[in-house]
Amino acid sequence: MTDPLALLTAALQDDPQAAVTLYKGLAPPQQAGAAALALSLGRPRVALAWAADPLVRAAAALRLGEACGALNDLRPLPGGPRVQVLRARAEHQLGQPTAPETAREARALARAAGDSAALVAAVILLAEQEYAQVPSPHAPLRTLAEGLKVAELSAQPADSHLLAVLACVQARLNPRKAQATAQKALDRSAPRSPARVLALQVLGQSTQAQAEAAQGELAPVWWQALQRSPALAQATSKGT
Question: Are 79 and 64 contacting, i.e. CB atoms less than 8 angstroms apart?
Fold first, then answer.
């Protein structure tokens, strides 16, 4: 007998409307994990409709650029590292001046808690902010190095989003190295994710990047802070 979650995964990949129908037939314990699955497969609107967990709801809303909605979901929660990094991303999307400080707080909380996922998410956001604000790429490179160290210490592959942001930063120093890093990010990225869109842009595949962004309902704010990257700017201009 075919696993219902396997059917749901296939539908989320290719036919979100069919996935909605399959979801209604799942048992409640299976439905509980379906929203996170949808988000991981680049279907944030579906994830937002299904999610009860405020962290999943906030993450899905941020993919869509709905930062105010994310903050509403996060408001009643205690400020742990994962909550704080999502708050920082929401403040960043809204252009709030508190966003860098909130991201630094999230990084400190993640370090103290030993939460590697939150730490990587925090350093990615901090690097994006630094790259947009500081002419030199060296500050974001130092920030991203902490995320790479996390992967090294845990003997895990580096996060695809971190690699994609790293490639954007590297493009100002060593375009050839940036291309290699972007290819690694692309190989590890989930469909319709910010990591995949950024990697494709650095690789000059702007048409594919735009298609992934549209299919994943990604708000442009996910790459706007990195527009100063020569590779990314060139790829974007080719697609217009």
Answer: no
pLDDT digits (tens, 9 = 90+) for 159-170: 999 999 999 999
Whole-number Å distance between alpha carbons of 77 and 73:
8
The pTM of this model reads 0.91
Length, in residues, of the chain: 240
Backbone angles phi, psi at 12, to 5 degrees: -65, -30
Amino acid at 52: A
Helix (H, G, I), strand (E, B) or coil at 112: helix
Angle at which helix 67-74 crosses helix 54-63, to 10 degrees, equals 170
What angle is formed at CA 118 by the lines to CA 181 and CA 34, rounded to 5 degrees? 95
- What is the DSSP-derived secondary structure letter of residue 217? T
> Burial level of 222, CB count in 10 A (0-12/13-18/19+)?
buried
